[in-house]
Amino acid sequence: DHWAKGSGPIFFYTGNEGDIVGFWQNSGLLFDLAPQFRALVVFGEHRYYGKSLPFGKNSFKPKNMGLLTSEQALADFAVLLTSLKKSLNATKCKVVAFGGSYGGMLTAWMRMKYPNIIDAGLAASAPLYMAGGVVSPNFFFPAVTKDYHDANPKCVANIRKGFSAVLEMSKSGKSGKQKVAKLFNICNKLKTSADVKQLVGWIRNAFVSMAMGDYPYPASFFGPLPAYPVNASCKYIVNASQPIKGMAKAMSLFYGKKKCHDIYKQYVQCADPTGCGTGAAATPWDYQACTEILLPGGTNNKTDMFPPIPFTSSIRKQYCMKKYGVTPRPNWVATQFWANRLKGTSNIIFSNGILDPWRNGGILKSPSASLVSIQIAHGAHHLDLRGKNKHDPASVIKARKMEAKLIKKWIS
Dmax over Cα atoms in the chain, in whole Å? Predict the structure, then answer.
């Protein structure tokens, strides 16, 4: 409705690990900015996600997954934009890429690889230095722990006590396991140590997801979460008569209030310990975690608040070979996408929220005058990409204004 046909810019969202509709619904910044720029908004879906399945229902057979790479996805976007611009008589229109998390990495990589197509980009909450091996990926779970400590200094100690109670009760035979299952209202019978490990992973997954989605208002991107879910869960845990009871109550914030919880359906172990999700996107992301995306390892209960669940590079390698017949390439992203040698590119904004546990894997200092880092106090995972909200903190309002100003400068 607002596009100045043939002359206004194109705002292009570089779709990441999921159905593109979800990103369309949760990336309101593009729509908020479009009228003032008289821009056309386009969302491109990543191959192997959503409806973009090259082999249809057989796309996830290991023999058919070799074409799932970030390089191929970038080439798809380049071909799409070239064709679209031609069909719309918009060959002279500037293109600004937007993306969050892995999508933010794709945005930056698009500008690096296709500067002839992409004129500028906003890479929100993009852990580019982690993916490129510039920083160790093991910052993640300590960062989640810090989020809960900062919400309430007593919270982390009580979470540790809650986990300890789960493990101790589970050691006391069948009756102890039944008691734990009842406390957490799970459908599954806890029979083995593997079941207990799955429960611990299920609990960890909820804490991790609430830290990433710690928005200042209710949102559904990571699940139907209340405003500031980290604070909300800490209140349950700190104020409960027993930490394990508060922890069980906190799980309902993320998993919802159900007749019972199936811990094997609600949490699936995969090559990404931070979570692959449970829907159709889980398998392709698991594959990418097995091939090219360098990701965090396990938890250790020393630098983080979670029970030890090791996931070393050798464990990942064995898992990936067994499931897909592939092995990880931990150095490939650095080779393909420049690591921290970024001064050969330009016109990219790297935004990171202080509350986001992925923050320390991102670019926190501006590499040059046209590669600009913006840090957002009170901001969780790519909060700035979301549409404006009356509960937005002043820091994200300021960040969005800075982003708009830079984009305008770069495409003028």
Answer: 71
With cut-offs at 50, 70 and 90, classify the pLDDT of residue 376. very high
Active-site annotation holder among 27, 59, 70, 101:
101
- Beta partners for 14? 44
Which residues of 331-382 form beta strands (DSSP E)?
348-353, 371-376
381 is catalytic: yes
Q: Which of 356, 382, 384, 392 is catalytic?
A: 356
- 356 assigned to active site: yes
What would the pLDDT profile of 359-369 be if each residue is shown by its tens digit? 999 999 999 99
What predicted TM-score, i.e. pTM, was given to this entire model? 0.97
| Residue position matching structure tokens 């400590």 | 149
Written as six digits, the tokens of 286 are 């698991």
* 120 beta partners: 96
Angle at 278 between CA 275 and CA 282, to 5 degrees: 70
The runs of H, that is alpha helices, within 6-154 are 20-25, 28-37, 70-87, 102-113, 128-131, 140-151
- Token pair, residue 22, equals 């979800």
Catalytic residue chosen out of the listed positions 119, 381, 382, 384: 381
Reported as a single tens digit per residue, the pLDDT across 207-246 is: 999 999 999 999 999 989 999 999 999 999 999 999 999 9
